[in-house]
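Entry for the shared binder. Reason: the reviewer on the internal report wants the predicted structure included alongside the sequence.
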Amino acid sequence: MPQRDLASWNSVLSSYSASPNSWFEALVLFKTMVVNGIGVDGITLAVVLSGCTKVGDTRCGRSIHGYLIKLGIRRNLKLENAVLGMYAKGCDMDSAIQLFHEMVDRRDVASHTILINGYTELGLIDLARCIFDQMPVKDLISWNSMIHGYVKAKRPKDALELFEKMEKEFVTPDETTIVSVLSACSSLSELQLGRLVHHRFIMQRNIRIDVFVGTALIDMYAKCGSLEEAVKAFYKMEHKDIFTWTALITGFASYGLGHKALRLFEQMEKEGIEPNETTFVAALTACSRSGLLEEGLLLFGRMVEIYKIQPKIEHFYCLIDLLSRGGLLYQAEEFIEAMATEDRVIAYKTLLSSCMIYSDISLGEKIAEQLVKLGSQNHEVYVLLANFYALTGKWNKAVEIRSSMKEFDMRKKAGISFIQVENIENSQAYESKEMTNYPV
């Protein structure tokens, strides 16, 4: 390029910053621009800050913030919001709050929403709500952020209550809102409310059923006990992605409809959609719950050999459950012994249950001993062990386990009381610290 102006430098910088893989090159280019006196403008700084946020490079972002101050750029709201977003994404909420306080006379809806998202990511949903409630003006994005925050924090009732409030304030929902609300309905098994959202908001208000809304609908109907409506929603969708297919396969699996789940899996493959790790968990679960031993083993083999997916703990749990239910207890034991010690408790619990069903006392005793050695602090494990020893006539062992269970329950209650008090104190201290920085 014979002549390089600032716009051309910014264009190249933007290209580098767009990908995490070329982030280092972007920093080198930015440094070259500064050192060689080429100059920078608001676009340059916004691009670099955006890159810092994408890759989570808070250290670099803090340096850029310092450079902004050095240049005397203190009242550029777009850049300040970019810095705010960088701190929030990097979980440095102390720096974010400090900057937010400095922006008191010029911060906007985006500034507040950035903080809401930051607190949500940290699980501090009540602080996020505090920021939300004090917003002088709210837009749809801020409502969506808060509703999604509640869903993510596993507080679906709060999400639905906020959605109701949003409706009363005549804010029109969009696809993002509906996905969060349907997810909340799924968590609460609120079928009637889910249907209402479908008909009143999606159908009557012509909200577009894209892959996100469609998948959320399928998931909601399946989890709320209406698999027929989930299937209808699935086949009405024009475009489906892997998450859509997985949602319905999971639905079939949860109802023990293994053959239907596998047929859908095959249909998905024929349409050129490649299954992911979660899809295989759903399909293997379907095989396990339907007693499709041979099909499940073949599926596990295809996952490893054809799709080159490295099995994770969830896949091994499915396989062990499949083998245990199918009576292949010793093969299941072999898989468990190949697992990391800390991952064995759930697998041993599954296998011990099957030993009781198939009356394999010898293997059951071996597995029971392993569970005792692992020292699991799990109430279900204690119950299972006590039942096993009672079944085999080892009453002394059963009484010993039940005594240990009572001691564990008492320690657990005492521990919970202490933890609750400690958490309340820590939470109050943290919120007190944060809210002293927040300009009420």
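Summary line for the report: The two ends are 53 Å apart (CA to CA).
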